[in-house]
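Researcher: Excuse me, tokens okay?
***
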Amino acid sequence: MSEAEILVAKEGAIRRITLNRPQRLNALTRSLLGALSDALADLAADDEARVLVLTGSGRGFCAGQDLGDKGAVEDGRVVRDTVERYYNPVIRQLRSLDLPVIAAVNGIAAGAGMSLALSADITLAAESATFDLAFARIGLIPDAGATYTLQRLLGPGRALALAILGEKLSARQAADLGLIWRAVPDADFGKDVDALAARLATAPTKAIALMKKAFHAGGHHSLEQQLALEAELQSQAADTEDFQEGLSAFLGKRAPTFKGF
């Protein structure tokens, strides 16, 4: 029996999904993407989950599309089918999760692997990790949401230049550009990922879900539309038990204990 291409672990309120093709630097195949989509669907229905950590096994995060996946990249028609049937659903699922998503980039994130990492809410990378938008080197355009996320993170000028030039970035360069949240020394990487996941596992989950909704809408709303949305979402946040707990803790000068609703 072949080893699972996706590993799912439950640690209290923390969920970890690990891409598990280390011999191929976790390069993406249609079967892996299908398994990832199934895992994300299960996660969306998991009422006890409060944070997701997405990472890769071995020495890479994800090397992008496995060009040896027969039937996935032969011509334009096939590539379009692969993107629409396998990549796009996963990106939509990641972006629509109510809970916070951490991409723990432990090694190279190339092509669609870089796109996947940048679809997370918080991207943390080991200093030895690299980010490589390699599409131009094989005559393709960035996909898996990269043309959407990159220009929002870098601005349109830098994003397009990075796509055209396809230059590899170190984790430190990516952090300095604002592409990721933080680059940390390799020796501290596992500990820092665990600490961040533990912190978010005790955060006010409903407020984070509403926060994500507001920020995702902000990119295409007018100021007036966004002000109205903020008022609506803030009213929803104020109706939660976690807000009452946060208010009580603030007034009582104690640490809050959020339940996630």
